[in-house]
Amino acid sequence: MNLRRALLLALLGALALATMPAPHATSQPSHRPRRAPVPNDAPPAPPNETACNYQAPQDFLIRENFVLRFRMSDEEQAAHREAAERAIRYRTEHYGYFEGFGRHEWNAHTPSDNATRTRFMDLPIQVNAQLLPALACVEEQLRTECASTGYQPRRLSGLRTRNTYHNGEVSNHVYGIAVDVDPTENTCCMCVAQWGDHPLCQREVESIYERMAMPACWVHVFERFGFYWLGHDALQDTMHFEFLGDSEHILKSDGPPPVAAPAAPEQTHAAPEAAPAADHAATPTARR
Question: What is the pTM assigned to this prediction?
């Protein structure tokens, strides 16, 4: 009886396996996305009728100028580590001490102490209080210059209390000087692998603008007021703007900034080479 039962169960099992559907024939494993071309197409800046200065990001604060790459020589790595320390000290002194980066004696206050809640383009956001006039001027110009695009963001992300960079980097979000615009609609193809699986990242495009919902006009306006767009970075993080200008010279009443934005904006640094897969595998970036 036991033998019959065993044979019957084995037969039923074999029939079940035979009738199981085969794996989906058209499914293909995702592959690492290719970097999209970034047009250098910023138009000449219009006359500045806002209360803020036009200014360029400070070069030493731009991530590509201090991030480490495996293919660097020892001398290059040493120079980038020194530059990274300078950038951390500047952000600490100006925006607050974030535990684990820099020294507490550089600033007795934390970025959260210096943060404030505000509204930008009718949406709530928390940022460093020093950014309020810059964001107000950006919004004024967006409403004037980019109204015809019809773009209205649905979600913003500003200050974070947890660092989302790895391997010794610290995100500008923890200092309250970074703004993400519609994170689910503006891609970061070269961040973590699951973001690279986004359909827009998996297909070839002629311009990085094809991988985001936000119009290019927004990028050009932000960049005039000291914000750096991380679409230029090897991460190609299209949602992300970070204020790298001089916070002490945001308003015209504060005097001109050390580095004024050019009338026809140009690249302030050499375009980064496509980062090898090992770089991203070794330095995963969950969020900026």
Answer: 0.81
